[in-house]
Design goal:
The protein is mainly beta and about 400 residues long. About 5% of the residues lie in helices and about 40% in strands. The termini are far apart.
Length: about 400
Amino acid sequence: MCVFLRVLILFIFFSITAIPVSAQYEGIIYGKIVLKDKTTLTGPIKWSGGQMLWSDILLVSKQNSYILNYLNKRQLSELNDKNAGEGLDWQFMNLWKDKLPERQHELLCRFGDISFIHITGAAQAQIFLKSGSKIRVATNEAENRHLGKDLLIYDGKLRKLKWANISKVIFQASPPNFKPFDGKLLYGTVSTSAGELTGFIQWDKIKFLTSQKLQGKLNNSQENSKYEFESIEAIEKRDIGALVKFRSDQKVFLKNNRDVNRSNRGIVVMHPHWGRAIVEWDAFRSLRFKEVPENLGYDEYPKPRRIYATVRTTEGKIYKGNCTFDLDEDWDMELLEGSSSNVHFQVPFSQVSKISPLGADESKVVLKNNKVLILGRHNDITDKNWGLIVWLADSKYQYLPWNKVDEIVFR
């Protein structure tokens, strides 16, 4: 049976008897889907890109972004020159000063940050944040599964709903006695080359329940051995495989399977308080499972605020105010991206204390929990960043190209 079908079957295994309130399932996406015929369905939701947890990502493109209108011809020309250096095809643009540089304006946020989504077209929607603010979005060219596709909901019966029939998706905290799976959510601490990370776990990006199985070959066996995560206490990378420690104190060494070698697509660690990280196998050291703490559900994602920053330039000038970062991010629930030691971080701006560029290829990022990261490999924190606009008093503003930024301190 394929992985998708197994997860689908797990999705419908609801408990038939009442159980005590459990923190185990607070992390599951839950809410109401209102159809165009006014029918309302309530229950756990599986989004079209496979997202089932509040910490999962919605990736879409913002519509009607006029931010480039605030730049003058010289500034636009410099951005065009930067894009030309990235090897883009500008033969039809000619790079004249009055041509606008092209780049998708992405909205990258977690489902826990959203109040509701209003469907407005085949691949368009309006996203309403918990603050009440609205963002018009469309399908992102790089990830077209997030809008316009069928959704799944379980309201006593598993239902597949066509996008064209949906009016709104309204998110809310799950109720007491909520137990949607035959299995608990995976949660633990991952040791990596970039330090320790604690949160919900997705093993190989798709396994997130204790009832799912870790696979690998024992010794010279030709067949995969399979072990439910429920029975596993810890996993440690060893040579060409992994040492698996069970709660029974037994140990096995597994190899020759994507679950336990470099073919692994990544170990995802997610937490409402600090964000999300994708740990490549080369960066992975070990994982120790833990029980899920309480209060990690929908209500732990606060109302977004505008990004507010104090920016010091390389010339020593100081600018304070609401900030549009990389000419793209306006809200503190949007995600700062960058990689360190084969770990890719996605951190809400609300959890970022300070950013200091360190040359063209990386930046020093200090989080509000005092964790320090040296991040690279992404537009947000390299010289591919398009710069910042700081919105000053009396309708004034200041554009700052990235190479003029010495330090950004966030509220």
